[in-house]
Amino acid sequence: PATRPIIAVDGPAAAGKGTLARRLATELGVPYLDTGLLYRAVGRRVLDSGADPADPAAAEAVARALTAEDLVRPGLRAPDTDGAASRVAAMPAVRALLLDFQRNFGRDHGAVLDGRDIGTVVFPAAPVKLYVTASAEARAHRRWLERQSRGESVALEAVAAEMAARDARDAGRDAAPMKPAEDAVLLDTTTLDAEAAFAAAMAVVRAKLNLG
Ligand code: CDP
Ligand code: CDP
């Protein structure tokens, strides 16, 4: 039924996808899946094994053996995991291995999923697709604040440069590149706080699902 929908939330790094998607899921009473965590888990395990995250054979072997425990391992948000995740995410075999899990997650009860290709590839028929963006400066600042509050000392410029390189890799790859679905609603959060972004997103959800 329409009250158990799939809601796709895509966009670049630190746009506020996860914060928004989690809140939408709570509001609608459906499960939430952070699909970036799957790619992070693969990238992290490849790094921890001493292999090169750019080596497709190593990444594919890890993706094939991925377990739920890998999604709660330490270091999934570490800076070196960011780059490793986006390297393994460019490999078609890795993406194919993660697809069933994502589709099964939303199948029975509906779900909110956030990532890069939810509206374009994972659930192309989702009734609600949001593409969340913000200026590169705002996103770098948000990620930098998060790192500061975790006690990591890192320059804003370094965060911005790493993020720009990762976004370029995610948007430029051939396999499920990061881009808005044709029927996605764009939500620019540059000047919105999380509360305002949630309100704007809920207006879209209500309209698309005819919730009144
Ligand atoms: O999932 P994604 O990487 O897109 O972003 P996030 O982890 O949800 O949010 C990154 C940071 O931006 C968090 O510290 C949020 O509190 C903050 N933020 C937000 O989520 N939404 C806004 N509209 C403004 C800031
Ligand atoms: O939180 P943040 O936006 O920085 O990243 P994330 O959502 O955790 O995703 C980490 C990386 O996984 C991205 O840079 C992408 O390379 C990849 N990813 C993807 O390719 N497809 C998805 N559906 C989700 C993440």
TrEMBL record:
Subcellular location: Cytoplasm
A Pfam family of this chain: Cytidylate_kin
EC numbers for this chain: 2.7.4.25
Domain of life: Bacteria
Stretches assigned to the Cytidylate kinase domain: 7-202
Main location per the UniProt record: cytoplasm
Catalytic activity line of the entry: dCMP + ATP = dCDP + ADP; CMP + ATP = CDP + ADP
Name of the top EC class for this enzyme: transferase
InterPro entries found in the cross-reference section: Cytidylate_kin, Cytidylate_kinase_dom, P-loop_NTPase
The keyword Metal-binding belongs to this UniProt entry's keyword annotation: no
Signal peptide, first to last residue: none
Keywords, sorted A to Z: ATP-binding, Cytoplasm, Kinase, Nucleotide-binding, Transferase
Binding residues annotated for ATP, in chain numbering: 11-19
GO molecular function, one term: kinase activity
Keyword Nucleotide-binding: yes
NCBIfam families: cmk
Sequence similarity: Belongs to the cytidylate kinase family. Type 1 subfamily.
Protein name as annotated: Cytidylate kinase
Species annotation: Roseomonas elaeocarpi
Gene that encodes it: cmk
